[in-house]
Specification:
This protein is α/β, with parallel strands linked by helices and about 350 residues long. The strands form three sheets. The protein has a five-stranded parallel β-sheet with strand order 6-7-5-10-11, sandwiched between helices. The chain has a four-stranded parallel β-sheet with strand order 2-1-3-4, covered by helices on one side. The chain has helices at about 20-25, 40-50, 55-75, 95-105, 115-130, 150-160, 165-170, 190-200, 225-230, 240-250, 260-265, 270-275, 275-285, 290-315, 330-345, and strands at about 15, 30-35, 85-90, 110-115, 140, 160-165, 210, 215, 220, 235-240, 320-325. It has two domains: about 5-125, Oxidized Rhodanese, domain 1, CATH 3.40.250.10; about 135-345, 3-Layer(aba) Sandwich (Rossmann fold), CATH 3.40.50. The chain starts with 12 loop residues before the first strand and ends with a helix. The protein is about 50% helix and about 10% strand. The radius of gyration is 25 Å and the shape is globular.
Amino acid sequence: MPATVAELPAFDEIIDARSPGEFAVDRIPGAINLPVLDDAERERVGTLYKQVSSFEAKKVGAALVSRNIARHLETWFADKPKSYRPLVYCWRGGSRSGAMTHILQKIGFAATQLDGGYQAYRRHVVAELERLPALLSYRVVSGPTGSGKSRLLQALADEGAQVLDLEALAAHRGSLLGALPEQPQPTQKSFESAICFALARFNPQRPVFVESESKKIGVLRVPAALIAAMRASPCIRLEVPLATRVRLLTEDYAHFLHDPAIINSRLAHLVSLRGHETVAAWQALARLQAWDDLVAALLEQHYDPAYGKSLSSNYAPTPADQTFSTADLSRAGLQQLARKILAAVPGN
């Protein structure tokens, strides 16, 4: 009998039998890719199906699938014990995962096919992202740019707190200069899968710490139900001196500092918001490599006003908010702050 999405945790391994291109867009978290057709083979079979006949496509496809599964049997499955229980899926839970499951079963493995395949899993993610956010309680870590919010989340996680680090999942720091070097953002579907996977594993009896994000992180959209739940939650508000924030940002964005031209090309996008004169002054500081002065100017003239406006409308102050001040964003300082916060927040 095929398995349902709810039964995923019961299996030793989850095998994605789709092509590498499909796998790259999104997959079940933790799945491994053992394609029965690679991208070029899948295109070839699909073309035959459309232009010649389903019979010719199936003949060619069967040969390709057989060779690919044989290769996986000689490599990935070679050392698997008889007790091995894999779950196999493809796009719809059809012929690709069916072929692999059939052969594994004939060998003697307790292999099972996922009913409905990836499409069933995707419907599950969409439904869960509507349902799960409201079941959890959140503490939203807020503070102006450079306050060490992301570092604090890591310190909280190290102390055993439940943490949802959306910027880590999105591979982006959430600002104009927030793209990570040599690390592209995941697809929207993959981002949503990662969020769903994280939410499903949190204990509803304990708070979840999350940063005060906007609706978009880079090019990715945060699920609407999650944003709504976050904005209705109390905040952990950080107060950090400007000099400390400048020091942290020059560390976090050190990858930009070797090439002022890169920074200035990004700053040019702010002309419509801050005007030619202001942006030109920033760009002049970049060319001089006066990084501390540039970061301080950006904070005071752009990031702080923008963040204050966003915070007042999206994470307005409530009586349940708690404020913590620090001038020490070192690892030890953040660890101490994390412990102080956890002692003050009930439910940990």
